[in-house]
Amino acid sequence: MKQIVEKYRALKPTIDYLSDEIVIAQAWKKTHGYIRSFNWYADTLALDVSALTIEGNAKKWAGQISRGRNLKKLELVPAAKSEAWMFDDTGWHPKDFSKRNKKSPLRPLAHLTIRDQTWASAAMLCLADAVETVQGNCSNKNQSFEMTRASKVYSYGNRLVCDWKNKDKAWFRWGNSETYRKFFTDYQNFLKRPLELGRLVSNQALGSENVFIVNLDLSKFYNTIDVDVLIERLQDISSGFGHEICDDFWVAFKRITNWQWSQEDIDLAKELKLGDIETGLPQGLVSAGFYANAYLADFDQKIGDKIGGVLSKTGNIVLHDYCRYVDDLRLVISTDDITPQKIADEINKVIGKLLIKFGGDKLALNTEKTKVTHLSDLDNSGSMANRIEMIQSDLSGPADRDILDSTAGILENLLTIEDEATPVLGDNHADLALLQISSFDHDIRPDTLKRFAANRLESIVRSKRRIVSLDDKETEHEGSNELLAKKLILAWMKDPSLALVLRKAIEIYPDADLFEPVFKAIFERSSFAKGNQEKDKTTQTMMDYLLSDLFRCASDFNGYFQVITYPENIKPFAVIELLARYAQKVIATDGLFSFTVRQAMMLLAVTNKPVLLNTGDNIQKDLHSILVNNPPAYQSQRSALFEVAAQITDNFDTYASLFLEHIEDLTEQRYAALEPFAKRGGPFWLALWKQLNKKVSFKAIARQIKWAAPQVSLQPKPRKQLLSKVICSDINGFEFEHALIKLALGLVDGADRDPSIVAKSPNEITVKLSPSYSWDKVWLAEVKEIECELAPSKTGADPRFVIPTWIDTQSSQDNGIIYWVGTILRASVLGGADFTGSHWKVGETVTYKGLRTSWYKRRMGMMHSPESIIGEFATVSGWFSDLLMRCLQWPGFESSFVQHKDVRAVLDLESFILCLKERLGYLNDLICKSSSLPVLPTEVYRPNNKEKFRIVTVQQLLPRTTDFSAADVQLNNESFRAKHRDHLLAVCQLTVKTLEAKLKSDGDEKKPSADLIVFPEVSVHIDDQDVIKRLADKTQSIVFAGLVFTDHKGKLVNIARWFIPDYRESGRQWIIRDQGKENMTIPEKQMGITGFRPCQHIINVHGHPDGPFRLTGAICYDATDIRLAADLKDKTDLFVITAHNKDVNTFDNMASALQYHMYQHVVITNIGEFGGSTIQAPFKEPYDRLISHVHGVGQIAISTADIDLAAFKRSSKKYKEVKTKPAGV
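Below the sequence we write its predicted structure tokens.
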């Protein structure tokens, strides 16, 4: 359905696109997300301001591009690079000061305003398809590296997230929030490619040939890019792609890339030996990676053209492959018997010349980093890359205590690896052969290894704390954690640029006494220390950078420490207090860099330690003024700071009242000041609305903005009602897909009768059921239709429901109607007027969270998954998500990701109505009529060529019946939580090992896998579901597990959760479905558990040759309901029961009865305390019927079975004989 205006189908490098408000808004969205994630030194408050005001700023910035507004000056942020430090009798200092004369240990990062960043990103959006196409598809999982080489794909780093609609043509997802592809995936491919292709060469090589991998590094790559040459190359690429040259675009492009530095920063850069910062791309520009790839696109192709030929006659060096990751180049070569040093010299010479010829005059290789390594040193299980992959594999699964301990030892060793330079010996030196033996390459830089090790060690410590009981072992465990923190500090001391390593040390053992000497050493070497003894400006700059990073970390820690549990003897907030004292010293002293002061002021604001400064004009100063109730003069762009202050203090009413006082004198502008908050929603808007109605002077404004008033939950009677009253009530029947489809049909019918209803909000629409039923029963098949009419407005028009300009209403009014129906449906299922919202719960931490979103941003980036709009009980299915995706399109969004064919077939209102009616008929047929229960199908696509369906039953021991008590129904006792999680990890690891053993015996798989893993009832605490997800990921399995009693809207309920990993091109996503339990046992009633089963889930598994297979589940006592079994017998192929049941004989008999009367496989997984887990099916022979059964009590048992789910629906009789069908089946 071509719902979007044709203009936005594909962007082009024209001024019309570059100055388009919608393109600017999408460029801002990508820029905003990237900076928050990767640019630690960014002004986060400026990002908050831009998030609240982006609706107005997008228009303003688009106009400024057309009018030719100049850029702001760049701000220099010198960041520390890797440098060796040491201790001796003079103290802690750089190992070799003389090296700084040749190479500065600083990198010149640049801080740009969010507007200037957005402009460069907008140009990137216009050029993306052309530049990505010329580089080729590096993400094709169906291609081997040999095929990728044949396709002339060489570039891996900083590649954009694209779809390849045609084989060779890229389409950048410019409407999504992500910009670049995942680092880990592309970097792993970059490392693997030379090895795989080198292996092919080695297998075909003559006996005298040696195969080498050559690592090359570009020196100061970003700084040496000539922007004028870049523009010429971009024009060539664009023309080659088929774009016409738009002179106005390129004039504007030259203006928005004409970055300028202040003279002060230029002089400082020279003093610090940072090179010529006035040339090249700013490091810190979000789009810099994209432009750098464009700059080298021709060079990549020219080097690629030489593959298969002789690169140098000296030694007969033949080039077999080339690939590049940003400034890191890898070559696969073969050569006659010449030394690696000679190879390096020849490669440096040849590639250096080609680099100047096809890259640029200023580009050069950093020859000191050139490495030539025998393929055999890298292509083996002992190579560092392979070891890292093994560590990742171990930790990605359900890592138990043994795995955590053994992996931690390996990672600690990585902290001690140093980059030791090898000497250069002459060709005839007697020890040359000896040197070559010792100069094998680790293939990953030591600083990268240390960052990796620090990250994983912190994760391991966090995992181990959750399984260590509060006993004597905790003291021993925390002692080892303190020692580990010291080891990390030592690794940082040897290379102070490893700020992340220091941060992880703090997270592992946040003890103020331990870190005070560290912070003191940094501060006293910084430019902010009074009577500074450090005369070296480079060292001062490094320490200023480290201080800034520590202040930023402390701001993050303020929230992090509220959710991470540490032993009582550790006082993590004392570390924040200590850093806050240094922040106070920083703002009281004149130092070199304003970015350090910004981070210091931000930390003091986050910890609610405001100070009033007499000088300077920045956002941080204004926030401090607001925190002390003394706001500066009104600026609309800084209104967001009032909400930030409310977040920091958790006093939303106080700062809402202060904001109203602040705007009281604006008269005409008061509505404009409030509207962004009204559209954004959230706790600050609720507080503003509350205060608005208290202030007489704001009564008129309150009436004017009543469309955003919070809805009050009432109990609407079964008669004509405002839609807003129904969806905000406790009996909102529009949480069900059946009801939403009826509502959609009613809205379309209402729009046909009265077109003026289109673009109205739920506050302006009445609904009436025919025939009349309670509003929570709208899903019933007996409710045939919903009448929708326009109601007289009491709140005024809601601007959020206006049809956006990107919807093509000129070609067809159907597009506008379908979009509006989508807004009403989404608002109805969410239960509020803001259709752009989500179901995610708000965190309980009191700290700075920032303003990451707004209504305007959300409208162009909504998530429609059932989990995000209704929650895990998912009373709507993936089909409804697809429907919303089809209705609520936005520019740069590709609705071809819709999986359901009937939704994809929607082209206009006629096909829309047909799609809705067919789906409603299908859902009505699925309803469990005897049980009066709606059924929701979930489609799961799992490509699988096997005929059999592998199922695993996991019978664990904990928790036992005696572990539950009225005092601890949810098993939250800390000591038992640790014991329970430890047991679950061990059982999950045992499951993986069982599958590995099974697969090795079969000899048909490389990785452990299953189709379904089933755990008992109440066996997994809700805080341990991460363990189940890791198991599902490791085995690529669907998991059905009973969760320990959990809270749902204030009531304790019993649920079993479907964990379904959904593997797509964009990565793995989770489909989560909660199966409720309706019938409570006597012990459950005594503990206050409430029955809650809003629907029955059926999982339709596609991909098997005889599929799809239909799976459903029930929790213990619910399985004894013969009405449910009767309802499901024709609808499913596998009935799965999670149990915590001591009456094993009864359940054995029940399984025997169910498998025949439902005529399908039945699986029961019981707790090990009682045993009796079984898999049965109605085959003719008894030995076939009982597929699996675990006898005996107190048993841990992992049982696997390959079952034939198609046996009872297959017409052929060549398989196992089945029993005669029961009557009625």
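Residues 995 and 1001 are 10 Å apart (CA to CA).
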